[in-house]
Specification:
Pathway: Lipid metabolism; butanoate metabolism. This is 3-hydroxyacyl-CoA dehydrogenase NAD-binding domain-containing protein. Helix content is 45%, strand content 14%. Strand 1, helix 1 and strand 2 form a beta-alpha-beta unit. The longest helix is centred in the N-terminal third of the chain and has 17 residues. The protein is globular and about 55 Å long. The two termini are 31 Å apart. The model has no long low-confidence stretch (mean pLDDT 95).
Length: 283
């Protein structure tokens, strides 16, 4: 395994590509637009320069960038042995990407689904290689988080599990095994918390600062749920809650209208410069 394809150059894709390149892997970073890819490389270079100051290893930005090539369209990753997909949590978008990847890649290529909630077996079903599709739920920011959820689908082979586990180990990640259940461990709990926190603001019970202060000061959490929403992306939170609501048909996952309104208004959190809080620069 010499070259890893990374599909999607958003927040998660950039983090995955940086993590791979900084641990000695060659990467093909794929997106649909040259400007998005150029911006992604700029973000990776900046993150690499700041790595040590942020508590990570000392990195040479030039060495990290030298391991990353870019491509517009999934065809650029066609010869990769393993592909990590990081597109938005929208089923129609993911399905289209996997159908294109399945047509472009060789039969032995492993597809790793980086998803917050979408069942892995559902993704595998739109490909002709369900035994080579596996889920990995990376956390944000990817290079700084030591663990991931590892989720085999119904048909995922032991060989695919081992190949993926070996790669994660080489990336410095500990993998926690989880059965293929929508939302897995983390987001079955986290998305409910963030959604309910948004309801508190929506209903005027408290403002975002007060909600987060309770979690930081009373529970000792490093971040409150609405700060976490801004970090993950308010739009990503909404899409994940919608997937949970649709999958379980359970009203406890009903999406907060405020999340919908913020998503429609472009208030997506840190990456857009404004979410529950306002940021001086988008990151």
């Amino acid at each position: 395994m010499t070259v890893i394809g990374v599909i999607g150059a958003g927040v998660m894709g950039v983090g995955v590509a940086q993590n791979l390149a900084s641990t000695g892997h060659d990467v093909v970073l794929v997106d649909k637009d040259e400007q998005i890819l150029a911006d992604a490389l700029g973000t990776i270079a900046r993150n690499a320069r700041m790595s040590r100051l942020m508590g990570g290893p000392a990195l040479d930005p030039d060495e990290v960038l030298a391991r990353i090539t870019t491509s517009v369209g999934v065809g650029g990753a066609a010869k990769c042995d393993l592909i990590i997909e990081n597109v938005t949590e929208n089923w129609d978008v993911k399905r289209e990407v996997y159908q294109a990847l399945d047509a472009a890649c060789g039969p032995d290529t492993v597809f790793v689904v980086n998803t917050s909630a979408i069942p892995i077996t559902k993704v595998a079903a739109v490909t002709g290689r369900p035994d080579k599709v596996i889920g990995v739920h990376f956390m944000n920011p990817v290079p700084a988080k030591p663990a991931v959820e590892l989720i085999p689908g119904f048909h995922t082979s032991p060989g695919t599990v081992q190949r993926t586990r070996d790669l994660l180990t080489a990336m410095g990640k500990k993998s926690v095994d989880v059965k293929d259940s929508c939302g897995f461990i983390s987001n079955r709990v986290l998305m409910l918390t963030v959604n309910e926190a948004a309801y508190l603001v929506h209903e005027g019970v408290a403002d975002a600062e007060s909600v987060d202060e309770v979690f930081r000061s009373c529970f000792g959490h490093p971040m409150g749920p609405l700060e976490t929403a801004d970090l993950i992306g308010v739009d990503t939170i909404l899409y994940s809650v919608e997937v949970l609501y649709e999958h379980y048909a359970d009203s406890k996952y009903r999406p907060c209208p405020l999340l919908k309104q913020m998503t429609d208004a472009g208030l997506h959190g840190r990456k857009s410069g404004r979410g529950f809080y306002t940021y001086s620069t988008a990151n």
